[in-house]
Amino acid sequence: MVTSSAPGKVYLFGEHAVVYGEPAVPCAIERRARVTAEQRDDDKLRVNATDLTLDGFTVEYDGSVADTPDIDVAEPLLEEGMGYVNQAIEQARDAAGAQDVGFDVTVQSAIPLGAGLGSSAAVVNAAIDAATRELGVELDPREIADRAYRVEYEVQDGQASRADTFCSAMGGAVRVEGDDCRQIPDVPNLPFVVGYDGGSGDTGKLVAGVRDLREEYGFAADTVEAIGDIVREGEAALEADDLDELGELMNFNHGLLSALGVSSRSLDAMVWAAREGDALGAKLTGAGGGGCIVALDPTEGTETALRYTPGCEATFRAELDTDGVRVES
Ligand code: PMV
User: Fold this and answer.
1) Which residue's CA is the nearest one to ligand 1's atom 12?
2) Does residue 259 share a domain with residue 120?
3) For the CA atoms of the chain, what is the radius of gyration?
4) Same domain, 132 and 266
5) Which of 25, 164, 174, 181 to mutate to test the pocket of ligand 1 (most atoms within 8 A of CB)?
6) Mean of pLDDT values over 79-108
7) Which terminus of the chain is less hemmed in, N or C, by CB atoms within 10 Å?
8) pTM summary value
9) 154, 184, 214 - which closes a domain
10) Which positions in this protein are listed as binding ATP (predicted)?
11) Is the pLDDT confidence value at 25 over 80?
């Protein structure tokens, strides 16, 4: 039996624009998904998943991966989650050259689902690592990232950038521009605070909305390019350890995302509460539409302000995690 874990992430800068070839800087956060894989005597896959983010609930899926899983749960995101685990196990089997092994898999995730924190990438990375190790194979984190990207690409019908999977596999702050993925060295400690509205956005719809705007208006295309400029300025601020400048740029980035129509009332309310709580800066993270914001704040101010913000279901500190996917036991 092997347990591996991988971190979630926030976008410091660059979501949506990354879809059009601009760079983005996602950062791994100290919130992890843990996956335990134990080989079975048959070729079945049994998945037990526990969501530890809010109230916590459990679902069991018992079936052969060859069958379409028939999962009787009200939560469509959880159903999609089973698709991610199935595909991750397929990748592990492929990497180990062991097509017909079965697994009992336990997923425990402290990362809200579909809320812009990269929960699926973390689960997939941890599942690939745990299942391959269980089969006696140890993969390089870059190979895990690559295989995890293939899983996301498949499950999300081709709508996936390499940002989430690479960031979660490697840890720290990373820079992703098309297929060019790198770790950013010597990053200062980034005091992230997350606000969560309890909801999620529809990534496909939000990405399509930005695409339509970009095609209709030249100034929307310019807005996407301007986000790329923010990312390049942000890289310089990271190198200079300039947290104040990073905060300013996060505020600017949020404004442009809002102009592109991907914010929401609750995300805006949390962003403003964070700023009034003395955050250095705040923005939505991920696809938007609902889910999470990320603020930069070394003090307690943002957490306190968010606790009293209508529409904010949960707030937590989630500092930069320099560890990527790793074996736990
Ligand atoms: O919500 P998330 O964490 O899946 O992020 C989506 C980020 C987008 O740039 C909108 C899409 C992508 O695949 O990069």
Assistant:
1) 161
2) no
3) 19
4) no
5) 164
6) 90
7) C
8) 0.91
9) 184
10) 112-122
11) yes
**Boundary (domain end) residue, out of 151, 168, 184:** 184
80 and 211 in a single domain? The answer is no
What is the pLDDT confidence band of residue 113, given thresholds at 50, 70 and 90?
Answer: confident
Please, which residues have CB within 8 angstroms of residue 79's CB and are 6 or more apart in sequence? 69, 71, 73
Q: Check residue 232 and give left, alpha or beta (phi > 0: left; psi -120 to 50: alpha).
A: alpha
Query: How confident is the prediction for the chain on average, in pLDDT?
Result: 90
Is 11 a domain residue?
A: yes
Give the pLDDT score at 49: 79
Q: Rounded to the nearest whole angstrom, what is the distance from the C-alpha of residue 203 to the centroid of ligand 1? A: 7
Tens-digit pLDDT profile for residues 299-326? 999 999 999 999 999 999 998 999 999 9
Q: Check whether residue 106 and residue 232 sit in a common domain.
A: no
How many Å apart are CA 296 and CA 303, to the nearest integer?
11
Domain count, the chain: 2
Q: Quick check: is 325 in a domain? A: no
> How far, in Å, from the CA of 287 to the mean position of ligand 1?
5
Q: CATH code at 311?
A: 3.30.70.890
What is the distance between the alpha carbons of residues 215 and 223, in angstroms, rounded to a whole number? 12
Residue of 207, 211, 267, 294 to test ligand 1 pocket, by largest number of atoms within 8 Å of CB: 207
Phi, psi of 148 (to 5 degrees): -65, -35
From 202, 198, 208, 207, select the one nearest 310 (Cα to Cα): 198
Give domain status of residue 327, yes or no.
Answer: no
Which residue lies with its CA nearest to atom 14 of ligand 1? Answer: 161
Name the residues annotated as catalytic.
164
Q: Please state which of the ranges 14-28, 43-57, 114-128, 178-192 shows the lowest mean pLDDT.
A: 43-57
